[in-house]
Amino acid sequence: MLSAVHVLAVNNFGDTRSGGLAGPMGLFLLLLLAAATVFLIRNMNARLRRLPERFDDAAPGGGSASAERNVLDPTEGDSRPGSPL
After folding, report:
1. What is the spatial distance between Cα 64 and Cα 25, in angstroms, rounded to a whole number?
2. CA 74/CA 81 separation, integer angstroms
3. Whether the Cβ atoms of residue 85 and residue 78 lie closer than 8 Å to each other
4. pLDDT bucket at 4, cuts 50 / 70 / 90
């Protein structure tokens, strides 16, 4: 029984390196992701600053007016055929 536990406990996964690269590579990836996040935040802040403070209510092409017409009034019934009301 003791020899079976000893056989299972032996590192049998091939050559292992004493100075592995997992730590430095993990640090590099972490710093790379942090730098990418900082640049993305700065880019989005710059884009948000360029937006106007208010958008006009009357958009060219009637974009906002057509959106207001598509909203159903809850006091009115649905006029589509086959509607339950």
Report:
1. 52
2. 17
3. yes
4. confident
Q: How far apart are CA 85 and CA 71, in angstroms?
A: 17
Degrees (nearest 5) of the Cα angle 44, 61, 59?
50
Q: What is the pTM of this model?
A: 0.44
Identity at 57, one-letter amino acid code: D
Helix (H) or strand (E) segment spanning residue 9: helix 2-9
Q: What is the pLDDT of residues 29-80, one digit of tens each?
A: 999 999 999 999 999 999 999 999 888 876 566 555 545 555 555 565 556 6
Measured CA to CA, the distance from residue 85 to residue 76 in angstroms comes to 9
Structure tokens at 31: 């710093």
Structure tokens at 34: 């942090």
